[in-house]
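TICKET: design request
STATUS: open
ATTACHED STRUCTURE:
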């Protein structure tokens, strides 16, 4: 078998990793979640990436950064996925 095709098949067989990101409330807006999940560096980037159709929620492109997300929703940006989870969100501190 061609090594390239074997690698393609191995990648397809591997389940993509989805990080669990806990939130404090019952829901969170998409723009806030993108920052909380470290999918974007600055909150101001949320408008750009959503407007350009680069963000998907549960497999569908989402262009509204104010969309309400609930526990279980999966957000994907640039091939990286994060799932909204219950629990106390830990503060991100950049020293």
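STATUS: resolved
RESOLUTION: sequence designed for all positions
ATTACHED SEQUENCE:
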């Amino acid at each position: 078998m061609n090594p390239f095709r074997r690698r393609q098949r191995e990648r397809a067989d591997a389940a993509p990793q989805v990080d669990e990101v806990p939130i404090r409330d019952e829901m969170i807006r998409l723009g806030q979640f993108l920052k909380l999940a470290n999918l974007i560096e600055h909150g101001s980037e949320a408008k750009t990436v959503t407007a350009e159709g680069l963000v998907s929620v549960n497999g569908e492109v989402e262009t509204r950064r104010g969309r309400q997300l609930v526990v279980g929703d999966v957000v994907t940006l640039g091939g990286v996925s994060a799932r909204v989870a219950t629990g106390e969100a830990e503060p991100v501190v950049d020293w």
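CLOSING REMARK: The CA atoms of residues 16 and 81 lie 8 Å apart. Confidence is low (pLDDT under 50) at residues 1-13.
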